[in-house]
């Protein structure tokens, strides 16, 4: 694998941004579940670093968790989280970033970005719910509510934000 | 923003049997035993596993208080799972089983973190990644990126805090509407920093030389063989 120093620094940067994102929460009106920025940086890693480096950054993020560092949302850490009910959402970051990267490579019209990010969201919730139902034995219909629907408003805001941002980052930093 | 917990805080200084085990042994055992948790069939298997866990906790001189501390943050999740199970037939039982499995897994992870300092954990993981070195030193590269990401976390957190404070002074509160602005500044700032860092690394001629030596060397001794044997025999026994 050819990785330049710059690539490696950027991979680490997005891994750490994903960590920080889990700690940043923005309150939403109407008593909706506050949105966390964690998946936000997963989306951004795909759009911004491309499929391979983006997926690598999410992989490094997971490895940090494997070192039992409290990098997962709410200061949770380690193998227990990855294997537990909410672990699927985290594993899904890697394929999500990969797919978003593949779809948006060289094609960044706003509507297409929205579509690719939606695909990424579907991957995260799909794999997340898969593990959630498998580990807890809760039925799919019910899991869909507690494991996906309540987060959707936040995700829509995140997707809009990513689309707005992608056009603004100065080219010398891309 | 909630404060980031001290990432080195979980380790407890000590000299127990578990402290002296090779981190690789501990990581592998953790993976195997976490898997076994899912194959425990009847109540006897659970009791045996629990006894083993109590033994391991004693062996590593892990304090009960730290066990409670690592379980508490997940109590809301336990409650949620429990409540969701309640109105299905046999829900009480499934709910309790699921929660107890989680408790066992968390306990296993806790044993690893309290008995292994972060540098030997990193070293252990690095050694387990050795096969990847066949692909142009990928193992070294991953270790390098992990260390760098570790250093980036406090930097990024600090940057984020600064921006938030500066924007709050201007009357910009964190809300969905202001999100693009806040993240934009964060992103541009940290990207600039990372460009500088990449330049600094290259201009100093840092390279990933093959076969770098390190301060700590891992030793795989008779203890590790004993431990792995026990884990192996136990796993086979428990899942049959």
Which short descriptors sum up this protein?
A: mainly alpha, Arp2/3 complex 21 kDa subunit ARPC3, 9 helices, B: mainly alpha, flat, disordered N terminus
Category from helices, strands and their pairing of chain B: mainly alpha
Q: Residue share in helices of chain B?
A: 55-70%
* Biggest sheet descriptor of chain B: none
Report the CATH C-level class of chain A: Mainly Alpha
Residues in helix, % of chain A = 55-70%
Average pLDDT rating of chain A? 82
The strand line-up of the biggest sheet of chain A is: 1-2
Q: Could you tell me the strand content of chain B as a percent range?
A: under 5%
Termini of chain A, distance in Å? 21 Å
Count of individual helical segments of chain A: 9
Give the uncertain stretches of chain B in residue-range form. 1-9
Number of strand segments of chain A: 2
Count of the separate structural domains of chain A: 1
Helix-strand category of chain A? mainly alpha
Q: What is the oligomeric state here?
A: heterodimer
Helix and strand pattern of chain A: HEEHHHHHHHH
C-alpha geometry of chain A: globular
Our count of helices of chain B gives 10
The CATH architecture name of chain A reads Orthogonal Bundle
H and E string of chain B: HHHHHHHHHH
Major beta-sheet overview of chain A: 2 strands, antiparallel
Question: What would your notes on this structure say?
Answer:
The complex is a heterodimer of chains A (174) and B (240). In chain A, strand 1 (25-26) and strand 2 (35-36) form a beta hairpin. Chain A contains nine helices and two strands. In chain A, helix 6 runs antiparallel to helix 7. Chain A has helices at 5-23, 38-49, 51-66, 78-83, 87-91, 93-104, 110-136, 140-147, 152-166; strands at residues 25-26, 35-36. Chain A has a two-stranded antiparallel sheet. Chain A starts with a helix and ends in an 8-residue tail after the last helix. Helices cover 69% and strands 2% of the residues of chain A. Chain A has a single domain (5-173), classed as Arp2/3 complex 21 kDa subunit ARPC3. Chain A has 174 residues and is an all-alpha fold. Chain B is mainly alpha-helical and 240 residues long. Chain B has one domain (23-239). In chain B, 69% of the residues lie in helices and 0% in strands. In chain B, helix 3 (43-59) runs parallel beside helix 6 (91-115), helix 5 packs antiparallel against helix 6 and helix 8 (138-169) crosses helix 9 (179-203). The model of chain B is unreliable at 1-9 (pLDDT under 50). Classes of the chains: A mainly alpha (174), B mainly alpha (240). Chains A and B meet through helix 1, strand 1, helix 3, helix 4 and helix 9 of A and helix 2, helix 5, helix 6, helix 7 and helix 8 of B.
């Amino acid at each position: 694998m050819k990785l330049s120093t710059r690539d490696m620094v950027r991979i680490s940067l997005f891994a750490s941004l994903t960590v920080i994102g889990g700690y940043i929460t923005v309150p939403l009106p109407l008593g909706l579940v506050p949105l966390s920025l964690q998946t936000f940086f997963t989306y951004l890693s795909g759009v911004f670093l491309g499929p391979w480096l983006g997926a690598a950054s999410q992989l490094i993020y997971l490895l940090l968790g494997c070192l039992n560092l409290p990098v997962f949302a709410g200061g949770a850490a380690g193998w227990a989280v990855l294997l537990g009910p909410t672990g699927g959402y985290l594993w899904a970051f890697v394929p999500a970033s990969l797919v978003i990267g593949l779809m948006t490579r060289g094609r960044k019209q706003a509507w297409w970005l929205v579509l690719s990010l939606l695909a990424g969201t579907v991957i995260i919730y799909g794999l997340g719910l898969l593990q959630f139902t498998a580990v807890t034995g809760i039925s799919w219909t019910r899991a869909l509510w507690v494991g996906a629907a309540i987060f959707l408003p936040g995700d829509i805001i995140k997707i809009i934000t990513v689309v707005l941002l992608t056009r603004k980052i100065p080219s010398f930093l891309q | 923003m909630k404060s980031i917990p001290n990432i080195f805080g979980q380790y407890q200084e000590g000299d127990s049997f578990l402290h002296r085990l090779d981190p690789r042994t501990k990581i592998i055992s953790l993976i195997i035993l976490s898997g076994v948790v899912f194959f425990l069939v009847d109540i006897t298997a659970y009791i045996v596993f629990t006894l083993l866990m109590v033994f391991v906790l004693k062996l590593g001189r892990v304090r009960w208080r730290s066990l409670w501390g690592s379980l508490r943050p997940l109590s809301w999740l336990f409650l949620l799972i429990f409540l969701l199970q309640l109105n299905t037939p046999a829900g009480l039982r499934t709910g309790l089983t699921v929660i107890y499995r989680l408790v066992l897994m968390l306990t296993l992870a806790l044993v690893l973190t309290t008995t292994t300092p972060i540098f030997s954990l990193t070293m252990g993981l690095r050694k387990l990644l050795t096969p990847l070195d066949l692909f142009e030193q990928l193992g070294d590269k991953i270790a390098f990126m992990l260390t760098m990401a570790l250093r980036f976390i406090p930097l990024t957190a600090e940057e984020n805090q600064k921006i938030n404070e500066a924007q709050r002074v201007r009357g910009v509160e964190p809300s969905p509407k202001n999100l693009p602005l806040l993240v934009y500044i964060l992103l541009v700032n940290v990207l600039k920093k990372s460009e500088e860092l990449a330049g600094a690394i290259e201009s100093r001629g840092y390279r990933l030389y093959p076969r770098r030596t390190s301060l700590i060397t891992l030793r795989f001794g008779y203890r590790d063989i004993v431990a792995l044997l026990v884990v192996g025999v136990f796993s086979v026994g428990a899942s049959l």
